[in-house]
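cron nightly-structures :: item 1 of 1
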Amino acid sequence: MRVLGIDYGDRSIGIAVSDRLLIAAHAIGRYQIKNRKADAEYFKTLVEQHQVSEIVIGLPLQMDGSEGARVKKTREFAEWLKGILGLPVVFWDERLTTKQALHVLQQQKMNGREKKKFKDQVAATIILSDYLESKRENSHVPENH
């Protein structure tokens, strides 16, 4: 099974998915939010196509770690998504993720329009990559000898 990574925004959602071994994250697109019915169908199809068993959503905490209005909207979206998909949803601190994504795109020498197009999905990939790395690091239990 795979993990779906989401960078949630007001108008669009960056999407990434892990490989089956939960080692790498791959950007798979940017979804333009339409309405709850269309959005539900999109995510149901996406989860089925990619055999997703878990979802990680970037939590846009403020730099001091506090929660602002953006976090509330993200939590509401996560609850809605969990309700329609019936899958576990995990939040991941996404502070500076957009900045990292823009840096990656800058290195690719993309112009402003291209950066805007790919920023969300690169951010979703970074969120998912960080989450997968954390899972791997925490899964190593030392053996008792």
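cron nightly-structures :: done
Residues 2-135 form a domain with the Nucleotidyltransferase; domain 5 fold (CATH 3.30.420.140).
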